[in-house]
Design a protein that fits this description.
Length: 672
């Protein structure tokens, strides 16, 4: 479904079609001349044709109609302008002519708000199927139950650069062969490409692999092959699966675990080589975990941490395993503390390469919204206190970490879909809501995927698929504005509560590595020394507290110097930005002037064409009159010649009569 954006209205191309419909535009200038000037109508016509048909390839009209000539010239003048640019300019000109058009548009039907009914653990007996993609009709819905008037946003440029608004989901213009709608699939981003593998559609497991180019928003299907056997891997059987995990590793994709029709006894690790486009099954060592689906798999350094899930007998699990990717060896972990209850379809993330966070998930009867933390150094579970706007219980949601922020999307609680996109600051354990959607939409679905990419140094979230009463194949993107907010502190006292909650400190403080932000100039990494001895003046290694403080002061001076340089650079950048804005203003004024000149020239050309048409009509009339004159002159000459001939005959007959003795009669004599 196409997303409505708060303070941004419809996304393209829906915004363009809405504008064209409002203008009463169906491709003819005459339909819109009542609302706009002739010049604007001609330009709108040309842009409409360019956006819907493409560049003008038709020959110049042979008729002498000034209107047809002007229409053709306007369209021809756009050259090879891109379709998306024509759409944007069409809407921009309409907004210049009629700024309130969007609020007065009455032909946008909103989708009613419907709670999404879900049954988290209801599974249909899977049947293998390799399906082809099938496009689905897009519907427009609104956020918070209403459409909002917006200003034009350039959201139709190519790739992730099209995302120009923060903290709102938008639907980019997707092209190519769209994958079949699905949920419980795997998704991973590698170098501006998002890969989708497997999933569940109508209770049937899939094994197809698709890739979305995030620069052109184009889908394509990957024709994969099976790699031959080697010392490290064996040929992979591309068994359809769902509930698996897809992890990028070096130049490969790792597919771990998942539900299949004929499950194996233990977890299988399959790898897809992005260079050779071939699948293989990795050979592992040690005691592999029992096969399962709905587990969480988290990459920590060079290891995969697997937790929970549901096995082939529908038994819920809460065991913990680690796979070393360098040695391909499994290790079962018996952690300290109280682990999370058995669950599947939860979300997991790692913070500071040390703390594994588990949120939500479901059992056969309930869904959870609890948060658990595993210290990967001490292998001890804890359940810290959550703060802020704690999310509702959910399962089947998707999550992705961006710095110290953990974004959670979708999921459900057996009654309705979760409509909020939430974020957890993993340093402070404070939840907040990023945005919300309403209605039966893909973003309030179970089993959707969430991945992160970047554009010009900014992170962008990309979601795909899900199930909310129907299977989805939609793509939505969101650019988060959340930044690291943990402030710099010199710790001379016990660790703060927000950090000790994550660390689960008891008798001594442990190693902490935290990120914090100085204003908005940049992030500085602070390493806090641990294991403070009972002697308040000496550390465990014998260094005095004074020496530590002196070292920290020295580092502080260096950081302040670096900060001053950054501020100076920031001032320079602001000056350059001001200059760029000034140039932009001047260029805009020049553009307006050129537009005015163009409009005047078009009007003058229109008048000249009318004059030319009238002159041609007069010329045709003059040619007709000339022909009639020549005909009359020929008739006159013929008449005069006939009269002359008659007189000559009369004169010749009188002479010969005298000679023959026949004088003319008295009547003729009288006439003479």
């Amino acid at each position: 479904m196409s997303m409505a954006r708060a303070s941004s209205g419809l996304a393209y191309p829906e915004r363009f079609y809405a504008a064209a419909s409002y203008a009463g535009f169906d491709g003819s200038v005459e339909e819109v001349t009542s609302k706009f000037s002739s010049d604007s109508a001609l330009l709108l016509y040309a842009l409409y044709q360019q956006a819907t048909v493409g560049p003008c390839n038709i020959p110049k009209p042979s008729s002498w109609s000034p209107v047809e000539q002007s229409k053709w010239k306007s369209w021809q003048g756009l050259g090879n302008m891109a379709t998306t640019e024509a759409m944007r300019l069409f809407v921009k000109i309409l907004e210049e002519e009629d700024p309130g058009w969007y609020s007065r548009a009455s032909n946008f039907a909103t989708e009613p708000i419907v709670d999404v009914q879900m049954n988290h653990n209801s599974k249909t007996e899977p049947v293998m199927e390799n399906g082809n993609s099938s496009p689905e009709t897009k519907n427009i819905f609104t956020e918070n139950g209403s459409l909002m008037e917006t200003q034009d946003k350039d959201v139709v440029s190519e790739g992730l650069g099209s995302v120009v608004v923060y903290d709102q989901w938008i639907a980019p213009p997707i092209s190519g062969q769209r994958p079949k709608a699905r949920y419980e699939h795997g998704a991973a981003v590698v170098q501006d490409k998002m890969y989708i593998y497997g999933g569940n559609h109508n209770g049937r497991y899939l094994n197809d692999l698709h890739v979305l180019d995030l620069r052109s928003w184009t889908w394509s299907k990957v024709e994969a092959k099976v790699e031959s056997e080697s010392l490290e891997s064996s040929p992979a059987t591309l068994t359809p699966c769902a509930g698996h995990s897809l992890i990028p590793w070096e130049n490969k994709l790792l597919s771990i675990a998942g539900h299949t029709k004929d499950p194996s006894e233990t977890i299988q690790v399959k790898t897809f080589d992005l260079q050779t486009s071939s699948w293989s099954t990795l050979k592992t060592y040690g005691k592999a975990p029992v096969s399962r689906g709905g587990q969480s798999v988290t990459l920590v350094g060079t290891s995969l941490v697997i937790f929970g899930g549901q096995d082939a007998k529908r038994t819920l699990l809460n065991d913990l395993h680690i796979l070393d990717l360098e040695t391909m060896t499994w290790d079962e972990i018996d952690a300290l503390g109280v682990p999370p209850s058995p669950r599947s379809d939860h979300a997991a993330a790692v913070h500071a390469e040390r703390y594994l966070l588990i949120f939500g998930g479901g059992s056969h009867a309930n869904c959870f919204n609890d948060l658990h933390v595993l210290d990967l150094q001490t292998m001890e579970w804890s359940r810290p206190t959550q703060q802020g706007e704690i999310p509702t219980a959910r399962a089947g949601h998707a999550g992705v970490p961006v710095g110290e922020n953990w974004f959670i999307v979708g999921g459900g609680d057996n009654k309705s879909g979760a409509s909020e996109t939430v974020v957890l600051n993993m340093s402070t354990l404070v939840w907040s809501v990023v945005t919300s959607v309403q209605g039966r939409v893909p973003l309030a679905s179970e089993g959707l995927s969430l991945a992160v990419s970047s554009y010009n140094g900014e992170d962008v979230l990309v979601s795909f698929g899900g199930y909310n009463g129907r299977y989805n194949s939609e793509v939505h993107v969101l650019k988060p504005s959340h930044k690291s907010t943990l402030q710099s502190k010199i710790i001379e006292t016990p660790v703060p509560d927000s950090v000790s909650a994550v660390h689960n400190a008891t008798n001594a403080t442990r190693d902490v590595e935290s990120e914090f932000e100085v204003g908005q100039e940049g992030k500085i990494r602070e390493i806090v020394m641990d294991n403070i001895d009972s002697d308040p003046r000496k550390s465990k290694g014998g260094e005095t507290t004074e020496h530590l403080i002196a070292t920290l002061k020295s580092e502080k001076e260096e950081l302040e110097s670096s900060l001053s340089k950054e501020k100076l650079q920031s001032i320079q950048l602001k000056e350059e930005l001001a200059e760029a804005e000034t140039r932009n203003t001047e260029l805009y004024k020049e553009l307006q002037s050129v537009r005015g000149q163009l409009a005047a020239e078009q009007s003058r050309c229109f008048k000249l064409e009318v004059d030319v048409a009238e002159l041609r009509q007069k010329l045709q009339t003059m040619e007709t009159l000339q022909k009639e004159l020549e005909l009359l002159q020929r008739q006159k000459a013929a008449s005069e010649q006939a009269a002359l001939n008659a007189k000559q005959r009369q004169s010749s007959g009188g002479v010969w009569g005298w000679l023959a003795g026949n004088p003319p009669t008295s009547e003729k004599a009288d006439d003479a």
